[in-house]
Amino acid sequence: MEFVEEVLQRPPLVLGVDPRPGLHGPEPLEHIRRYTLGLMEALAGKICAVKFQTAFFEALGPAGFGLMHELVVGARVLSLPVIVDAKRGDIGSTAEAYARAYLEAYPGSALTVNPYLGHDALEPFLRTAARSGGAVFVLVKTSNPGSSLFQDLPLADGRRLYQAVADHLVQEAERQRVGAWSRLGAVVGATYPAQVWELRERLPWSLFLLPGLGAQGGQAIRGPGLLNTASRALYYPGGRPDLEGALHQAEAYLSELAPSL
Ligand SMILES: O=c1ccn([C@@H]2O[C@H](COP(=O)(O)O)[C@@H](O)[C@H]2O)c(=O)[nH]1
Q: How far apart are CA 130 and CA 113, in angstroms?
């Protein structure tokens, strides 16, 4: 089954894994490994995917990269879809290599990508995702307070830059459809609910990855194809590793997002 089909069969909440070694005792890598495997198992019925932020694993050195690989495999063993949040983007020939590194290496998984280099730079990701049954989430309107500096710039035709990015993506999103939804998704901050609804109109077939829930002040947003994403708030509820607390937090989010579950 493709990434898109798998996530849509599950509750619309994404667990973000952004491990901070300082919170994991004297043997942090081993503790992160055990805690994350336990957390994914405990939350398996309450989430649609696990998002791994590569930056936190890269910061752990060469062993950190191996750990991320082990945890991605662990997620797939639990039948959990995986999103690699690496925000890649480069000239086409290098984008090919990034696509191999994440989409081909982890079939059926998704990758976040940066559209700044243009359409030719996105194509290798889209081609590889189509081959591997994966998906791509393009940064459209990011969750951070400074995202307006460039993304909200007004263009000569009156649109904002992020709106022009969305309008550019819509045709490709239609080409990349898997049934009613598309392999080409968008990242839209949960911290900008008005833009979430406005972009939903512009990109009707795209799943939206909505980071910013919890720690960045975003609220749960319920709607078709909206994948609410929390890292710190779910991985470290109360500011530290806590399996029970994470389970309660996931249930609290789900009571807002999918009250029937
Ligand atoms: O617009 C964006 C795109 C990606 N992120 C990533 O999501 C998580 C958010 O972490 P929290 O602890 O839930 O704040 C993190 O990995 C970011 O790199 C984002 O926040 N906003």
A: 15
Q: Residue 28: which of 18, 40, 19, 15 has the closest Cα?
A: 19
87 carries an active-site annotation: yes
Task: Domains for the chain: give ranges and CATH numbers.
Answer: 3-144+166-260 (3.20.20.70)
pLDDT in tens, 96-145: 999 999 999 999 999 999 999 999 999 999 999 999 999 999 999 999 99
User: Which atom of ligand 1 sits closest to the CA of residue 51?
Assistant: 16
Ligand 1 neighbourhood includes 218 CB (under 6 angstroms): no
pTM above 0.80, yes or no: yes
Question: Which of helix, strand or coil describes residue 160?
Answer: strand
Tracing tokens 């991605």 back to the chain, one arrives at 72
Instruction: Check if 39 has its Cβ closer than 6 Å to any atom of ligand 1.
Output: no
Nearest CA to ligand 1 atom 21: 143
Distance 45 CA to ligand 1 centre (A): 22
Q: How far apart are the first and last CA of the chain?
A: 23
